[in-house]
Amino acid sequence: MTDPPVEQKERTLVGVSFGDAFRAQEFLTAATRLAANQRLKLLDAVFVSKDDSGHTTVRETVDPTPGRSALSGALWAGLFGLILGGPVGWAIGAGVGAGTGAVAAKVIDHGVSDEWVGWFRDTVQAGTTTLVLLVEDLDRDALVAELKRFAGATLVYANLDPDWLDRIREALSR
What does each of the 174 residues of the chain score in pLDDT, given as a tens digit? Predict the structure, then answer.
């Protein structure tokens, strides 16, 4: 007997560039409101900024950092070790958990892939911030309507068909 096919939800990646980080943050707030109204499911958001001298910074909202994951791994494995082996079990569990958590954070990518983050890092223009959204269950009409409030922003990338790309560009040009 075979397992039923797993339904793969369509993921949409959208990158929009803004003249400043505050406007990009405002668009993330708008996307969060769309998610709260069930117009999309927000999986990840990444801010990619480049200052006038060309220095790029990336701020991811989903992917865990090695330090945070190490601390969490140490806490949980240490607690488990304490229950099983007392103080010595706690010390061993905390050490193993910290190492495992840090490695897992480096290997596992829950949101926008590192390759795409690198692509946006290379693409972002100096003096701008690009907000990259990874979403599922996207109501495209709702996204276009929301983007009309962000005239002057630039569509950097979206894995949508050409008709929708034209509609987004038109919304941003108003």
Answer: 454 444 446 899 999 999 999 999 999 999 999 999 999 999 999 999 999 999 999 998 764 444 454 455 545 455 445 455 556 555 555 555 555 544 444 444 458 888 999 999 999 999 999 999 999 999 999 999 999 999 999 999 999 999 999 999 999 997
Same domain, 29 and 71: no
Residue 5 lies in a domain: no
Look up the pTM and report it: 0.70
Question: What DSSP designation does 57 have?
Answer: E
